[in-house]
Structures are given as structure tokens and as C-alpha cells.
Amino acid sequence: MSFSSITDFESALADLSGPDPAAIAAAAARQAQLTKPAGSLARLEDIAVFFAGWQGREKPRLDRGRVAIFAGNHGVAARGVSAFPSDVTALMVANFAAGGAAINALAEAAGLELTVVPIALDRPTEDFTRAPAMSEAECLEALSIGASVVTPDLDLLAVGEMGIGNSTAAAALCARSFGGRARTWVGPGTGLDMAGMERKIAAVESALAFHANAPSSAFETLRRLGGREIVAIAGAVLAARRLRVPVMLDGFISGSALAPLAAVNPAITDHCLAGHCSAEPGHARLLERFGLEPLLRLEMRLGEGSGAAVAAQIVRSALAAHDLMATFAEAGIAGAA
Ligand SMILES: O=C(O)c1ccc[n+]([C@@H]2O[C@H](COP(=O)([O-])O)[C@@H](O)[C@H]2O)c1
Ligand SMILES: Cc1cc2nc[nH]c2cc1C
């Protein structure tokens, strides 16, 4: 899937297919027959049925899962809104390639493959407090780059990001999409002190004022306030929907990619699970807006797909129970009276 025009993007967002009702019914019926009191595996049961619906099979699988990490640099970082300098983005991309980052260990532990996609790191986006972050062509290109990591053989796509300054973009995207004051969406990111937080709040406030009269479409919000890695996540999630590949979201920044889309069509998160709730304060608020209950609350705030990779292990447990447990009939046990 690629996005060669804004219309391509808008039609994909307007025309979201649903899960397979027959597979959902078959998986739910199987859950009801497994040797346990009805509902006792609770959300593990829901996860199995969710995967059945999107994969279109009674017994869903997780043979091939991919973590896709997108990386981008941000003009707004020059405003002192991160605890780290922008060159750390490229250095961490090199670390992902060398196998030394947290996500390398966590993807390996979860049995997921890892794809790292740096996007024009030597060309930071414009400072969105005084200009649109990207041109239309740049935004479409980032959407298509995101879509290109999704292949029909995937059983799960986990989305992650790396980009110094991108929690400022995420806060701006959420505020513009869902309303609320800048300070309700801004948090410490990589570890800002109080003075840094005030600069970050001021940057988000300036951005909201600068773009206040711009069209409120999902594309314009992404283009004006997003970053290339964030836009790529939006493209990947749309492509996954087209191919019915379930998605595991990561933290605040990965989720913020869907805020402008959800403001237009809330069904965009229907094929997504929230892997965890990050310590970044805006994340809990964002998940509430999406109506998603996170699988984990470990107070992580790393990004790079780390929370999504850990949560994939919960999915493995859910699918194993669904696939491998005996039914009451098979075990010769009478069901509930
Ligand atoms: O996933 C999260 O919720 C999360 C929370 C705080 C920071 N991060 C990561 O830290 C970077 C953004 O933080 P900052 O302070 O540079 O805006 C970016 O590379 C993210 O992957 C990620
Ligand atoms: C070291 C470092 C690693 C990261 N991984 C994702 N975001 C990050 C930000 C920093 C600063």
C-alpha cells in the first residue's frame, strides 16, 4: 500500500473494514468449551478472540511478528524541549543496528523480528511553532514508508519510534486532535527538568496558536505537527488495517500518531491493542480517548517499541491457552451445571 495523494490517505481512513464475525464466533465458542470456569482467563480470552477476528481464523497464531521502529528528527528540538541532543536519534539507530538497544533484547525475548527505518535523519522537520513540520509531499512519503513495512504474512505488527523531541510533537498532535491545554499533554519525555517543561509547554502553546486556523483534517494535523517517524506509524497502522494485521501500540508517541486519525474516524484503533501505559502523563489520557485498556502498566517510558514487545509475550500466552487447552469433552469433564 502506498499513499500517492491526500485522497488516498483520506479514503483509506474513511473506509476501514471490520474483523471477521465468523472467526470471532468460532473462537468465542471454543473459549466457552475450554477446561476452565467461563471467563476465568478474562482478558487473555478477549485477546485470543480479538486475534481470531482480525486474522480471520478460529485459532490465531503468532508465528511471524514484527517490531517496526521508525526514526526521525525534529526542528522543534532546537527549542530545548528534550533532555538529549538531536544527534542521539542517529546514534540510537546505529545501536539498534548493532543489536545493543533495549528493543533488541526485548524483541528477541518475545520472538519478534525487528525492522528499523530511519527517515531523513539529516533533514529535521521544520520547527512547527512557526511553520508546518512537513510539506505535503514529505508527509505522503512518510505515510508510504510506514505502509511499506507491513506485509500480509505478518501475524502481528508492533510499532515503535525513536526521535529526540518527538514527545513535544506528540503532545501537540494530541492537543490539536482532542483539545485540552498544552500542559495537560506535556510531560518530561526523556527526563526534562522544570525549566525544560516550561519551554516545552510554551512550544506546544505557540504551535497550537500558529496552526489554529489551519484545516482540521487528519492529514493537515499530521503534516503540520507530526514528525516523519510519527507519520510513518500512522501509515503503517492504516496499511495493517487493510491487510487485517493486528497492531500492538507502544507508548505515548506511537499512540499520538493515531490521535488525528481517531478524531476523524474513531474505528481506526479497532485492530490495535495498547501494549502498555507509559509513565508519560499524556499517555493515560490518550488511551482513555481511544477507549483502549493497556495490557501492562510497568511505568516504562523508553519508546522504541519496548512496551509493545513486552506485551507481545502476553499475546503469546493468550494464543497458547486458546490453541492448546483441552475442551471439557476432550478431557471428559462435565461442564458447569
Ligand atoms: O514511549 C513513550 O511513552 C516515551 C516517553 C518518553 C520518551 N520516549 C522516547 O524518548 C524520545 C522522546 O523524548 P523527548 O524528551 O526527546 O521528546 C523518543 O525517542 C521516544 O522514543 C518515549
Ligand atoms: C538513549 C535514548 C534511547 C531511546 N530510545 C528511544 N528513545 C530514546 C531516547 C534516548 C535518549
UniProtKB/TrEMBL annotation:
- Supply the InterPro entries for this chain: Nict_dMeBzImd_PRibTrfase, Nict_dMeBzImd_PRibTrfase_bact, Nict_dMeBzImd_PRibTrfase_N, Nict_dMeBzImd_PRibTrfase_sf
- What role does it play? Catalyzes the synthesis of alpha-ribazole-5'-phosphate from nicotinate mononucleotide (NAMN) and 5,6-dimethylbenzimidazole (DMB).
The UniProt catalytic activity note for this protein reads: 5,6-dimethylbenzimidazole + nicotinate beta-D-ribonucleotide = alpha-ribazole 5'-phosphate + nicotinate + H(+)
Is the keyword Glycosyltransferase assigned to this protein?
Answer: yes
Q: What class of enzyme is it?
A: transferase
Assigned keywords, A-Z: Cobalamin biosynthesis, Glycosyltransferase, Transferase
Enzyme Commission number(s) of this protein: 2.4.2.21
Kindly identify the residues recorded as the active site. Answer: E304
* Source organism: Novosphingobium anseongense
Family in the record = Belongs to the CobT family.
Matching Pfam families, A to Z? DBI_PRT
Give the protein's recorded name: Nicotinate-nucleotide--dimethylbenzimidazole phosphoribosyltransferase
Q: What pathway does the UniProt record associate with this protein? A: Nucleoside biosynthesis; alpha-ribazole biosynthesis; alpha-ribazole from 5,6-dimethylbenzimidazole: step 1/2
Gene that produces this protein: cobT
For molecular function, the Gene Ontology terms on record are:
nicotinate-nucleotide-dimethylbenzimidazole phosphoribosyltransferase activity
| Residue intervals passing through the bilayer | none
Higher taxonomy? Bacteria, Pseudomonadati, Pseudomonadota, Alphaproteobacteria, Sphingomonadales
Look up keyword Glycosyltransferase and say if it applies.
yes
